[in-house]
Amino acid sequence: MKKAIKIIGAILVVFLIGVIVFLKTAANDKSIYISTGFEKDVLIKVDQTQTTKTEVAAYLSDMVSEYEKLFGSEIWNENMDGKPFEEYILEQIRGRLTRVKCMNQVAQSRGIVLSNLEEQNISKAAAEYVAAVEKEDIKKFNITEQAVADMYRSMLMADKLFDDLTYEVDTEISEDEARVITIQYIRCDSLQAAASVKSRLDNGESFAALIKENNAYEYEYELRRGELPENFEEAAFNLVTGEISDVVETDAGCYILMCINEYDKMKTASNKERMIQENKLAKFNEIFEPYEAKLYAEYNEKLWETISVKDTIRSSVGFQEAYDKYLK
Known about the structure:
alpha+beta
């Protein structure tokens, strides 16, 4: 996913008090205003921008496809953060789209514009996506090249604002900071039991055999810095491939580690990019949130209740896929 689309979470707190309301959030001014209503198929309004049901369906279709590829259709029977997974995903889309529209407002105020080449590529991306959508869904979701082009234009403006506000962020991250390793481990409930296992390993017994004897479940872990207790990570990252650690004590038990791969080059490169983007996002939020706090957001709650993961756009080309091909 593109940077701007990766920015998740609700942006403005929205209350429903008998009718649709929205919250103005400013440094020293917080007031609730009653909505003046929505045009047909409009789900979100942020000042002068609108989000339609078509746009939500395009985002949702991509997410449904991605999650079902990873976890199967059973994922919709699961819960996330104490709520049905479908509800969780719809909240994420709602938050993302709200922020993208807020970003468009700020981008315009900062004089950010699209070039002729970018406009041409928007048209190409929209044409390719619409051509790939099944005919029945073109009519059902009111999909037109102009509507999709407007959606891509909004996404690109958000991306350009993100780049504009984060171009000075330090992107220097060392290989060791980003290094990804793979370990296997044996877990014991007590230091005494772990010492006994370590002694058996020192006497030549197989690490794999002792894993089966001691571990009730998973025994391999792909590790990045900052994920597990400091002493666990220190022991893990100091190992070379094939080396076995001493006993490592943690609040969750005692561990003996073996390094399977001390440096996964491809995953380290991916992790470095993730860390850079996290740094950029932190800087972006620091700069952008004061602007965002002055914007209004309204939600058509009645229409939101009709959105379902079972009602998605069928297309041989993903909505984000076409965007990335021409505009990434």
